[in-house]
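Changelog-linked ticket: adenosine-5'-triphosphate example.
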Amino acid sequence: MRDLCKTYGAGDTAVRALRHVDLDVASGEFIVLLGASGSGKSTLLNILGGLDRPTSGEVRFLDHRLTDASDDDLTRYRREHVGFVFQFYNLIPSLTVRENVALVTDIASDPMPVDQALALVALAPRRDHFPAQLSGGEQQRVAIARAIVKRPQLLLCDEPTGALDYVTGKLVLEVIARINSELGTTAIVITHNAAIAGMADRVVRLADGAIASIEVPPRRLTPAELSW
Ligand SMILES: Nc1ncnc2c1ncn2[C@@H]1O[C@H](COP(=O)(O)OP(=O)(O)OP(=O)(O)O)[C@@H](O)[C@H]1O
């Protein structure tokens, strides 16, 4: 990302959500994005994921220039390269676990078998259950399986543990760390929980739409080693 700016609205009501952000993310990196509410974290993630466009500046992903991409190009970029995980799981209630994940394999070019994705999130035995029969943490793990079944290079997580209790949140973090280390998927995780920063290769802190600091933790911790 180079000199990335995003302004919502115009005139007196304009909100400058991102101001001149420069950031390079290496393939396979695990980045934790911290910052106060309203500091621009989701805006940054949405632009990186091709869900939104910057007002000015440049975003590149490998040889794709997202800034000039047409709507169709952005759709293809999201479909082929990006997996999203949000705070709320957005599963389809009338479909089983397996069917929720299989929806993605129907449109992906090189998906992994659904059962492999479910095994990665330790949910293979629940494949025929419906979302309402699962706990919040299990539903989030289905959402992660759905995000990674197409083998995206980039996994973008916006508050993935925000709705979960301590133990369940840790289980979900374990799954994200495993995807990052076993599949080499680049992971960017937004959180309000500064303790999660210990899992990262780098911790990027936003303040008022700008990068306030980038830190490299002395040693990358496993989720089991984190406490809050
Ligand atoms: N669609 C929009 N229209 C107008 N302003 C917006 C819009 N989306 C976000 N904003 C504003 O842009 C700023 C950054 O919002 P953003 O959601 O990126 O922050 P955040 O750091 O993710 O916050 P939180 O931690 O509360 O989710 C905020 O001031 C927000 O009110």
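Closing comment: Example verified and attached. The two ends are 32 Å apart (CA to CA). The domain at 2-225 is CATH 3.40.50.300 (Rossmann fold).
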